TrEMBL record:
InterPro entries: ABC_transp_permease, BCAA_transport_permease. It is a multi-pass membrane protein. One of its GO terms (biological process) is amino acid transport. This is ABC transporter permease. It comes from Bosea vaviloviae. Pfam families: BPD_transp_2. It is found in: Cell membrane. GO terms for molecular function: transmembrane transporter activity. Keywords: Amino-acid transport, Cell membrane, Membrane, Transmembrane, Transmembrane helix, Transport. Its main location: membrane. One of its GO terms (cellular component) is plasma membrane. CDD domains: TM_PBP1_LivH_like. Belongs to the binding-protein-dependent transport system permease family. LivHM subfamily.
Length: 284
């Protein structure tokens, strides 16, 4: 049971990294980017190509996947997304869902529709036993890495000058511009950083959740559930929501497989009935 619980925590941490960028763009920038999974997929495919075709070590692939997705996000933000910031949420949804279908078609054409796989290095394979509990080394690696990232992100948004500028730009762009804050630059960097996080999540998750051209569509619902249940006031809510949903999903599939993914939908429904704004509502 403890092994299943730990696997659920690792899956939840992975969900958090995959959804953290969406939590930033949706929660802080108030932009509905349903194409967030496309940037995660880009990071996953970058890792597959780097490892399988260029023999780049896995640990080096992770920062490269982050940088590739961040650069891709920056290009798209400058070329397309920035024109949508002032548009309605419906326009943003239609725009980003169109990008999802375009990314699926482009990836299928370039890489094929088959499932992609990566081979983890030997030191990340196998299990260790701690207190009689078998823990997968790779899942332990994900928990530690993602935990450090969650702390770093929370610190960056709450304690740094950039985090203050971002919050000010979101609360009132005109006033922020008047104070000399480069709102356009702050939004571009934030969007690129969120895309990079998604790419890193895609690289980490390729071995666990699989990777094929339908990735953005399959996991879009999971990303939205994490952000919706967690709320948008900070990254603490999405982190707790991702952990709760990850544990529930893994334990449900092991213990009551006949219910399938129904468990996480039931949890989402229960949370939203009690707290419609999510676990941590955004104060205004």
């Amino acid at each position: 049971m403890l092994t299943i619980l730990f696997d659920g925590i690792a899956y939840g941490m992975l969900l958090f990294v995959l959804a953290a960028g969406l939590a930033v763009t949706l929660g802080l920038m108030n932009f509905v980017n349903l194409a967030h999974g496309a940037f995660a997929m880009a990071g996953g495919y970058a890792t597959v190509i780097l490892m399988n075709r260029l023999s780049v070590p896995f640990l080096l692939c992770l920062p490269l996947a982050f940088l590739f997705s961040a650069a891709l996000g920056l290009v798209f933000e400058r070329a397309l997304y920035r024109h949508m910031y002032e548009r309605s949420h419906l326009d943003q949804v239609l725009f980003s869902i169109g990008l999802v279908f375009m990314s699926i078609a482009a990836t299928d054409y370039l890489m094929g529709s088959q499932q992609q796989s990566i081979h983890l290095p030997a030191y990340l394979q196998g299990r260790v036993f701690i207190g009689g509990v078998g823990i997968g080394i790779y899942r332990l690696f994900i928990v530690i890495l993602c935990g450090l990232m969650a702390l770093g992100l929370q610190w960056m948004l709450a304690k740094t000058r950039f985090g203050s500028q971002l919050r000010a730009a979101v609360d009132d762009r005109r006033a922020a511009r008047g104070l000399g804050i480069p709102v356009v630059k702050v939004f571009a960097i934030t969007f690129a950083f969120g895309s990079g996080l998604a790419g890193l999540g895609g690289a980490l998750g390729a071995e666990i959740v699989g990777l094929d051209p339908t990735f953005p569509l399959k996991f879009m619902l999971y990303f939205l559930i994490v952000v919706t249940v967690g709320g948008t006031s900070s990254l603490t809510g999405p982190l707790l929501a991702a952990l709760m949903l990850g544990v529930a999903d893994v334990m449900g599939k092991y213990l009551v497989p006949q219910l399938g993914a129904f468990i996480i939908y039931a949890i989402m429904l229960a949370v939203l009935m009690l707290r419609p704004q999510g676990l941590f509502a955004r104060g205004r």
